[in-house]
Design brief:
72 residues; alpha+beta; Alpha-Beta Plaits; four-stranded antiparallel β-sheet; 6 strands; 31% strand; globular
């Protein structure tokens, strides 16, 4: 099972929280977050980053396209 990482760079405010929480998944590029890879192995750090994004710019999707994060 893998998760797809989507970041709305138009919404991202570049806080860097995601890169700090899950540096193997997220990095800052031109003052906005980007995913290091489009697909990742499921991990709590990525979920925590999606939950903590102040702009709600991160979405994690499972293989069926269902939203895994941010959690409600």
């Amino acid at each position: 099972m893998t998760w797809r990482v989507e970041i709305d760079r138009d919404v991202c405010i570049g806080s860097g929280m995601c890169a700090g929480m899950a540096p193997d998944v997220f990095e800052l590029e031109n003052e906005r977050s980007r995913a290091v890879a489009e697909e990742i192995d499921p991990q709590e750090a990525a979920l925590d980053a999606a939950d903590s994004c102040p702009a709600l710019a991160i979405t994690l999707l499972d293989e069926d396209g269902e939203v895994v994060g941010p959690r409600p």
